[in-house]
């Protein structure tokens, strides 16, 4: 079962051919191909901008709508590609998780606070910037500051229940910058 | 020591020139270049498809063979590029780790279960979908749902001992979708 | 507010137009665009090489200077793009975190050693390669072996306080290979 790879040096218009799945059953054992987008290219495109997310209180926040509002018009230009998000900070993080029940975000914040000691019992040497600073750095590396999401038919191709979270690990809310880079055809 | 970057608007055939390392010693102190692929391009290509991994029991599973079986033919079209894997779920994860001893995968599952409380002692608010659901969300953000692997000479350029793992964090096995995007020359 | 996406099939010289921000205020509530690089493309470029980082002792190390020394000349050829780093090992990790105070790196190592049991009290089955081996695998999946950083105006576009860390999780220092892939215009 083969994807169609297309050299883009030929300046034809982009087109997207979606073939019906030849493996309708994706359950019950063998690995199955669920859908086979085949893509003929017109030329690769790049776009990049820095967006600023407003200050958010400590905790996990669903920011998909904010991000899509900023880049949605650009996304619509891409039939197939990748969207890269890069948070330019070391005391917050980006992750993808459940987009519906805010309890999931609260529980994740509870987990992070349980797993990373804070305050007088914590063993940190780096304390000059406050008791929440060193834990924030650790949480930032646990979840990471960078995400890559596929683009399909002009939209972020995430699962039904997936959303982009900004996790703010500092007590004092700060605006956070995200460099968004789009690449595709 | 310089990589050769090649505009791809010239529709020449791809070629890959591998020069011998000029720094044969990669040990003992200074940063050394181990190999220097220099790549002349014929034109960038994009390919994307969604593959479905069969239901797997809770735990960590080596899925490199399954994935390569699905995308290997497409991979072979790329001399140089990147392969992006995106798991469309929030209760499983993708990670790269040891590909040989299944004990490593078992021990990693043990670790995850130790670090993320589950059951009556757990502090979670989000419990409607069962005791394993909230822990699954947390583990998904710890390991992540997205991977990017370099492509070199038509193959995933992982280290000798590296493999792609699907970590299933739910008790009830479910088929899992992975959007694979290939980009390169 | 729109990014300019540019088909690269037209073989014109790259150019970068930076417009002044039309949303000077990035605080106080609404999502704001901080800067809007608009990019006109001349043609996409790919470059890839494997660099070897020298053996480093167990712990977290700032390696931005070492990496930029290896790829800086190549980076300068890209106005806009992405730099991918891929560590070919399963007992070390790459992460982005604070680039100034070495205490942050020491504290992060302390955290990792606290969170992942090692020695006689540890529940691991995989012990053949020494007591530090299984913990090293787990830490590798916690922080990950792959990073993607935006390139803007010929440089890695990280935040002021961000740096690239190599975290060595084994007791015995080993040279570590990183496959670097650059893609952009």
UniProtKB/TrEMBL annotation, chains A, B, C:
SUPFAM superfamilies noted in UniProt: YjbQ-like (SSF111038)
InterPro entries: UPF0047_YjbQ-like (IPR001602), YjbQ-like_sf (IPR035917)
Domain of life: Eukaryota
Name the UniProt record assigns to this protein: Secondary thiamine-phosphate synthase enzyme
Organism: Malus domestica (Apple)
